[in-house]
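Support case: user asked for a sample of complex input and structure output to validate their parser. Sending the pair below.
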Amino acid sequence: MLDLNFFKIPKIIIALDFNNKKSAMELVNLLDPNIYYLKIGKEIFTILGCQFIKELHKIGFKIFLDLKFHDIPNTVFNATKAAADLGVWMLSVHASGGKKMLIAAKKALQSFQTAPLLIAVTALTSLKEKDLKEIGIQISLTDYIVKLSKLSNDCGLDGIVCPGQESKKIKFLFGNTCKIITPGIRISQDLLYDQNNVITPKEAKKFQIDYIVIGRSITMSKNPIKKLDAIIESMQ
Ligand code: C5P
């Protein structure tokens, strides 16, 4: 079995961004749960719900439930608890929900013997500095990401989601207390789609990113396994 730890390369989370179960399962059936993690996002969760997560657990996959909670502390507390009850391995909230919301999410996991990793989204990888200005944020994208990472770390979260370019700085500032999860992964010839801050898998390894999230490069590929093999090889 391929041991990604041996090569010290980022672990791979596949974003199951599909609008139907058949397409999702076609990909899932090709993947080894000992190597790949699966990310359930808003689209497929809205269509297939908790039952689908239970089915994936039965096959042996660890699930990152990426619903990016962002609400008042009480609502996020209850939603986080409900997500943890599902037995997911990782779940996400938006760091911009603020300190009280982040602490509420963390508190919701206290009663679990094996709690999911709680991670906070700093800035979406689709955002540019211009987009931040439009919503009234006048600091640079990097400063915004560092600020939200510090807040998440101070609130005891396990890690953050951030673009690859900023990950080096976050690792330097917070070391291994803060896991880094990075979407926006592309290899040559891949289309950017709506992503702006992308890096290659090789760069992800260089930046010591813990987990990379790969969506359309794999979900839209005619030969996902060949592509995944090439991605892993490029990181060795
Ligand atoms: O298709 P692509 O590889 O761009 O997919 C990226 C995935 O990562 C999507 O599922 C998206 O929801 C998620 N994501 C992101 N940027 C973040 C957090 C999550 O693109 N900051």
